[in-house]
Design goal:
single chain, alpha/beta, Rossmann fold, 5-stranded parallel β-sheet, 4-stranded mixed β-sheet, 7 helices
Length: 202
Amino acid sequence: MSGADPQSVPIASPEGTGRLVVLAGPTAVGKGTIAAYIRTHFPQVWLSVSMTTRPPRPGEVDGVHYIFVAEEEFDRLIAAGEFLEYAVVHGRAKYGTPRGPVERALAAGHPALLEIDLQGARQVRESMPEALLVFLAPPSWDELVDRLVGRGTETQEERTVRLHTATRELEAVDEFDVVIINDDVRRASEQLVSLMGPRPSA
């Protein structure tokens, strides 16, 4: 694992295919914010859109931030083997990465980014061992708590569950290839994209 210089990690991927980078980390660390920055400033990077059974948060757009589906549809896709990874997160909603779009993006030679949870990252490592796993870490535990409380999208009970989950998620850092500290969105995003090769758009 390397936390100091991500550019020291080889960028090589099989000829004619794109590189798959998996971004995971504890709740409220800012994975979605990093993904949004990359979506805006690095259009060369293909971003997977996860599917979930939870309801949209304010400002979230179906098909852009997540694909929102009912439990029955999600379970049907599981049975059909349509997910690269899926999990129940925080003991509540289901999240998953549709397999087909990822495989097509890689086959077309695009650098691809999956922004998923720890359970999903472990599943991707099993099914696509060539993927690079990146752990997004907070500057400190106190900062992580402040971010979770500050976004105001969960009840007190939900925050308690998420923080309990976060303590376990932080312990998994050694399972990842690279660690990026999310102390500045632009810096962290550019550090992540440097693992893929493309330059920012003008």
